[in-house]
Design brief:
It comes from Leptolyngbya boryana NIES-2135. With about 260 residues, the chain is an alpha/beta fold. It contains 10 helices and 11 strands.
């Protein structure tokens, strides 16, 4: 049995998602069926196959906050409303076997997500029961237009949204979605701060961990020099990314202190 993993991404996320894919495959004890939801091109890239169009209308696509914000809601449809699937944002690194997450019994719940402050839910890592989940994006945005709830309510699955669409959500072990921190309990680290992500900025306190996987992904052939070159040319990553978490200038300043 293959474990279905969907990654929300876009062309700006090319390098980070390939590092994530490497980390997933490195630790996996079962076959993985990996789908990239590429919001830039409204496409699905499954494993090493040619991309195909995603089943999302342009009207809905244009409501995205990021390139891929809404694509996670396509997952049950893509899976023909059968079985389970995992969703991950691309700016993450998996540090253990993803099957540990996949094998969690959802019971009566529609999906697992991270419990956040105020009773809201963080949907950047999810385990879905595709047989139970039906996400009607057209209906949600019609409700938003009618001011029944806000986009933020929908995006965070707040009580205002759940009053109209009562999904049963179970709490995800927070070690599966740890924001900008890592210790021995961390199963997946999520680099959430857009200004300090290691592929964009220097001296991230847990940047060495990301660069370990970055170099391993290159050695494994999952991340190519062309991927890096394109991302540099498009200004999606810093030009001196090969120097690692610390630039030569920052290393010199650390030595001189």
């Amino acid at each position: 049995m293959s474990i279905r993993v969907f990654i929300g991404s876009g062309e700006a996320s090319l390098v980070e998602r390939k590092v994530l894919i490497y980390s997933l495959r490195k630790h996996a004890q079962q076959d993985l069926d990996i789908y990239v939801l590429n919001g830039t091109h409204n496409a699905i890239e499954r494993n090493d196959q040619e991309p195909v169009p995603a089943p999302m209308s342009l009207k809905i696509k244009y409501q995205n906050v990021t390139e891929f914000s809404l694509y996670r809601y396509l997952i049950p449809k893509i899976c023909n409303y059968q079985g389970k699937a995992i969703y991950l944002d691309s700016d993450t690194v998996c540090l253990t076997d993803i099957s540990e997450l996949y094998e969690i019994d959802l019971g009566i719940h529609h999906f697992l997500a991270k419990q956040e402050y105020g009773g809201n839910w963080g949907l950047s890592v999810m385990l879905m029961d595709c047989e139970k989940c039906y996400f009607d994006l057209d209906r949600y945005f019609l409700d938003i237009e009618k001011q029944r709830y806000t986009y933020t309510d929908f995006n965070r699955m707040s009580s205002a949204f759940l009053k109209h669409h009562p999904f049963a959500i179970a709490e995800l072990d927070p070690n599966w979605n740890v924001f900008d921190f890592h210790n021995s309990e961390t199963k997946l680290i999520h680099y959430t701060n857009l200004f300090t992500q290691p592929w964009k900025a220097y001296n991230h306190p847990y940047g060495e961990l990301w660069f370990q996987y970055f170099h391993e992904a290159i050695d494994a052939g999952i991340l190519t020099e062309r991927d890096i070159e394109l991302s540099v040319l498009r200004s999606y990553i810093r030009p001196d990314i090969r120097e690692g978490n610390f630039s030569r200038k920052s290393l010199l300043s650390r030595i001189l202190r």
